[in-house]
Each structure stands twice: as C-alpha cells, then as structure tokens.
C-alpha cells in the first residue's frame, strides 16, 4: 500500500514543479478540422495572435479559412481580454470581440455577417513543458453557437509550443493541431 502511494506521488511530482509564467504575447497557426468559429463542417487553417498591453489586459485577433465540398468560409475577429491570476501558474481569462464571416457558395449568392463572440475559461501551466486551457465560447454570427474548448500545448523550447485542441457542441467534435511562438517572456 505504501509503495503504491509513493509511486503515485512520484508520478504526480512533475505536475507541481512549475517554473514559468503564462505568456499572452504570441502568434499561433493551426490546421483545423470541423473546428472553426462557425458550426460548419470542413477543414482549413487558422491564425491567432495576442498582445499583452498591461498586466491584465490583452488584445487578440483571429483569422480562419476553411472549406468543405460545397463552399468556402472565411472569418476574422478582433477583441480584447482580461486575465486574473488565481495562482502564478493559473489564470481565469475572459474576452469579448467583433467577428466578421463570409461564406462563398459556387451557385448561390455569397453571404456575409458581422457579430460578436465572448469567452471565459481557465489557462494553466501544469508543468515546465505543458500548458492546458479549457473554456466556453459563444459566437453570434449568422446563427448563435456556444461550444466548449479544451486545449493542450507541449513546449518544444521556452517560446515554441506544439498543441492539440478539441471543440464540443451539439454532439459535434472538432479538433486542431497547432504551432505557437511566444514573444513576451
């Protein structure tokens, strides 16, 4: 019994050894599959960026381009967010932004719409090389859509991370793989 407890405690020890703060100045590129900000099946690319402008406030921007067999979709957003440090390695984050989306359809007229998005979540550095975040996001463009996100990143170097993300809503699951470069540390 004591041996199992020691082994379990030893396996969890790296999770408590956090030496790096969270960085909010970054650029991230991703391949997305059914994971765009709109509830449209397809795959494509996204580009995200954020710049920390005060200790708590950051600006953010996103660009998505994905397609399926019937049409191409492009969207972009700009906004601002805040972070509240719950612990040195754990932040509560919230953001609000404006979104523009366009759907190019080959036979029907193209459509576009403007709207907003709002999100709240937790972001944590659970190990020197591992960061995770989870949250809920609501996007109101064309039609309202609310989804849950879960992401993890593995830091290949101090400022470069590879990531994997999942998105869940209405029985639909999307995923993405990404590469992030951070500049604020």
Compact summary:
The chain is mainly beta and 185 residues long. The chain has one helix spanning 2-16; strands at 26-33, 43-52, 57-67, 72-87, 90-104, 111-127, 130-141, 143-155, 160-169, 172-182.
Cα gyration radius (Å): 18 Å
Q: What is the number of E strands?
A: 10
Q: Helix fraction?
A: under 10%
CATH topology heading: Porin
Give the mean pLDDT.
86
Helical stretch tally: 1
Largest sheet: 10 strands, antiparallel, barrel
Strand content: over 45%
Number of domains: 1
User: In whole angstroms, how far apart are the ends?
Assistant: 43 Å
The global form is globular
Low-confidence stretches: 1-19
CATH architecture: Beta Barrel
Q: Name the helix and strand elements from N-terminus to C-terminus, one letter apiece.
A: HEEEEEEEEEE
Strand arrangement in the largest pleated sheet: 1-2-3-4-5-6-7-8-9-10
Tell me the structural class. mainly beta
CATH top level assignment: Mainly Beta
């Amino acid at each position: 019994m004591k041996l199992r407890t020691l082994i379990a405690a030893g396996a969890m020890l790296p999770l408590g050894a956090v030496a790096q703060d969270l960085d909010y100045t970054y650029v991230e590129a991703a391949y997305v599959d059914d994971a765009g900000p709109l509830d449209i099946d397809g795959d494509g690319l996204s580009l995200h960026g954020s710049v920390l402008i005060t200790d708590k406030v950051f600006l953010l921007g996103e660009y998505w381009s994905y397609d399926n067999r019937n049409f191409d979709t492009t969207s972009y957003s700009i906004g601002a967010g805040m972070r509240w440090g719950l612990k040195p390695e754990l932040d509560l984050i919230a953001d609000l932004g404006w979104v523009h989306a366009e759907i190019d359809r080959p036979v029907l007229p193209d459509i576009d719409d403007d709207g907003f998005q709002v999100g709240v979540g937790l972001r944590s550095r659970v190990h020197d090389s591992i960061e995770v975040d989870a949250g809920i996001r609501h996007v109101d463009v064309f039609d309202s859509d609310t989804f849950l996100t879960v992401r993890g990143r593995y830091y290949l170097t101090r400022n470069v991370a590879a990531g994997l993300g999942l998105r869940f809503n209405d029985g639909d699951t999307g995923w993405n793989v990404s590469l992030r470069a951070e500049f604020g540390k």
